[in-house]
Amino acid sequence: MISLRDAALSYGERVVWSGLDLDVRPGEFLAVLGPNGSGKTSLVRALLGQRQLSAGTLTVLGRTPRKGSRHIGYIPQQTALPVHATLRARDLVRLGIDGHVFGPRPRTRTVRSRVNEALQSVGAAPYADVPVGLLSGGERQRVRIGQALATDPRILLCDEPLLSLDPHHQRAVTELVDARRRSHGTAVVFVTHEINPVLGLADRVLYLARGGHRVGTPGEVLTSAALSQLYGTQVDVVRVRDRIMVVGAPDEVVDPAHHPELPDGARS
Amino acid sequence: MTTGDGLWQQIFTFDDYGELLVLVRNSLIAGAALGLIGGLVGVFVIRRDLPFAVHGISELSFAGASAALLLGTNIVAGSIAGSLIAAGTIGVFGSRARDGNSVIGTLMPFGLGLGVLFLALYKGRAANKFGILTGQIVAVDTPQTSWLLGTSAVVLVALAVMWRPLTFASADPEVAEARGVPVRALSFAFMVVLGLAVALSVQIVGALLVLTLVVTPAAAATRITVSPVLLPVLSVVFATVSIEGGILLALGGSIPISPYVTTISFAIYVVCRFAGSYRIRRRGARKTVSEPG
Ligand SMILES: Nc1ncnc2c1ncn2[C@@H]1O[C@H](COP(=O)(O)OP(=O)(O)O)[C@@H](O)[C@H]1O
Ligand SMILES: [Mg+2]
């Protein structure tokens, strides 16, 4: 479904990641982990065809990714929706289905029933008519999943969908995504900051860090040795019952050019 | 007492109303077109948070109109030219809201200054000068009416074509882009449409009060509905009622049309605001009841 070969991505001089080899199979749940600034969102952008690789090759569903494929469902990293969002949950889902089409079109019964099905499948039907701006974080994320799945995509890209959700809602979100890939064979690329909510679900992990990346099963990647090597400093992976704690990993990738110790008056 | 009566007569006089009505037929037609355009464009001005841009564009539109007045050419064309220059500049340099606002803040005084300069140089009737800033009915004569209607038609077609993708791009830009919506191109296209709509509004309510047609009605409508169908419909109704009501009332008095339009428009907004806060409280209550888990 997704295939990366010796892939690299950079913004100008700054190489975010390189030498990345990765294949994602149908129905597979790939968790993408890593600190802030390690290039998780950039990877999603590349998969969406919004950002070109600086080296290597990438194919999605057998071809170079291009914008606007209906086979890819996308849940963006949560930015506050515009304050003036005047849409209801059902309108947001509807836009995911036919919002890209120009010209006036009548509201058809088929589209309406697809919207209802999508909302129902994620348990968002009770607040289908509530403006998105009034929904809680967990409710909004359900609507987002409904929107992403409404076109029956073969790949689902989720960029930090668990951000600022409490554990209860985090579980709800991961369970919805997991159920989908089991029932429909949808390949899932799940970017997350927190390991534990996806620990039991992820088939494989891509861990991005400043010092490189690792791909493998959670058991292979989430070890003290592997992460210490990635971060270039002593990192301990501690297992407490069925949870994992990563101790000593810096939370942010610090670009040398932005390092506060450098005398750099021009930058702020 | 007598001065009070005199003042009242200035504001409302209805002698010879029937004859006057014939004279302003063109204004009423232009007003209807403007209500339609202003109401529809306003929906996206609110969705994209652009009221400040509207104000900025109208100042440059004013500069264009006063240049046309000075040169003795078509005022609508001058006003459109000024609008498009402003809208294009904002569209190119201010794709992000924060950049946008500083670009607009820089353009606005420049436009106003230019306009004042042109008006100072103009030696014709003072009423013409005043009209560009605060609006007038008499400015709408027959050739201008056809300009107004022609431009309205262009705006209307453009809006009909891009309505849905523009809604998507305004409400949910990341997913819209992933689904293949040309988000940046649409943003620019909308600025052009907005520029045209502003230039049209300047003709009737004047450069200083464009917001009353392009922002207030849509803002009022968003207070009472979130339906994607009702919202534009109500916005158009509010804009049309404001402007046609303003024209009909202004006919009876000797003061410019804009205070009538702004007052009606504002009154509608106030009513909607109260009605809306009640609705949202009710919905909030319902929501907590139905929240799962
Ligand atoms: N449009 C951009 N231009 C320049 N640098 C960027 C851009 N987007 C992201 N970056 C940089 O690339 C790095 C990775 O960013 P991102 O992919 O957003 O990381 P993550 O999602 O893992 O936090 C960061 O250092 C960020 O500053
Ligand atoms: Mg990110």
UniProtKB/TrEMBL annotation, chain B:
Pfam families registered for this protein in UniProt: ABC-3
Superkingdom, taxonomy of origin: Bacteria
SUPFAM superfamilies with a match to the protein in the record: ABC transporter involved in vitamin B12 uptake, BtuC
Membrane topology: Multi-pass membrane protein
Keywords (A to Z) from UniProt: Membrane, Transmembrane, Transmembrane helix, Transport
Protein's name according to its UniProt entry: ABC transporter permease
Record-linked Gene3D superfamilies: ABC transporter involved in vitamin B12 uptake, BtuC (1.10.3470.10)
Cellular compartments per GO CC: ATP-binding cassette (ABC) transporter complex
GO terms (BP aspect): response to zinc ion; transmembrane transport
Family named by the database record: Belongs to the ABC-3 integral membrane protein family.
Annotated transmembrane regions: 28-46, 67-90, 102-122, 147-166, 186-216, 228-251, 257-276
Localization terms from the record: Cell membrane; Membrane
InterPro entries: ABC_BtuC-like, ABC_TroCD
